[in-house]
Amino acid sequence: MTVPLSVLDLAPLSSGSDAGAALRNTIDLARHAESFGYQRYWVAEHHFAPGVASAAPAVLIGLIAAATDRIRVGSGAVQVGHQTALSVVEQFGLLDAVHPGRFDLGLGRSGQRRTEALAALSTPPPAPAPARVVDGLLIPPAFDFGKLVVQPRFALFAELLQQPGATAPDFAQVVDDIQAFIAGTYTRGDLDVHVTPGEGAKVELWILGSSAGQSATVAGERGLPFAANYHVAPATVLEAVEAYRAAFRPSVVLDRPYVLVSADVVVAPDEAQARHLASPYRHWVRSIRTGAGAIPFPTPAEAAAAPWTDEDQALVQDRLDTQFVGDPAAVASRLETLRRVTGADELLVTTITHDHADRVRSFELLAKEWAG
Questions:
Q1: Is 212:165 a contact under the CB 8 Å cutoff?
Q2: Rounded to two decimals, what is the model's pTM?
Q3: Mean local confidence (pLDDT), 101-117
């Protein structure tokens, strides 16, 4: 096909397993992804999720880099609302000192987004736009994340992730500080600050975003590559990439916009088998959207036996409708539609199945189809 494929891995736990097994599976999958020809391998940052082991991206990235030879490794994304610009640069500077030139430092907004969502609750949200199809790509109604941030559990999580009394700084300032630390140009008044390790690190800086908000604008104005989340927020992916391109200014990094778009996929030799492997996905998404945190991924049999209501179905319908499930040709065709409609320069695919072998096989089948 016309653009590279890359991998996003959440280090998912399967039911009956544990975090150690999930992390060993991630390292194994990274080795396979390298042999299959994927461009880069990113890990996410999630906290308080019983079914996700990727709580510390920099640590996991170091383990992956040590177990592979060539594939770029990165964060999708470090949530800078939970730590300082200095700590982020030191972590990735240390990694780059050992494995120079292999790392992508993807940045995401976390504490800032929760603060904005809470503030927005004072005004009634607009009615969600109905589902529409844009040149073959489904754009579903938007999910209201405001229902999650008001839960007491989320307030506790936000408190535990930060030092007492700390507030998340402005995202644009954090990005500028990170760039200055890496470039060795950071100053405060008449003082300059130099970071070791970190200054001069050959890391590739990325901004991740789910809407036409600050992340897209910051990425564009600073001439950085931008990753848009179709797999998490499919309703706003087109607005996100449009806002990024509209704000883009050439930089020493890029002379034109560079967009990566994510997608959730499950590939098997035939559609029936792929549907079977993907069948627990609805329960996994439900656990996230009810505020419980991602559960360990069930087996298809466990999912089939679990209670399910019409209300549950409505809660996750947009994610089910935008998950690409099927045989290699069918999934590759849908990914090509996503690429064409968004104008993506690269696609980032994520896959969750209960059995690790099925997940490896899904990435293998897709890579062969895409390359062929």
A1: no
A2: 0.95
A3: 79
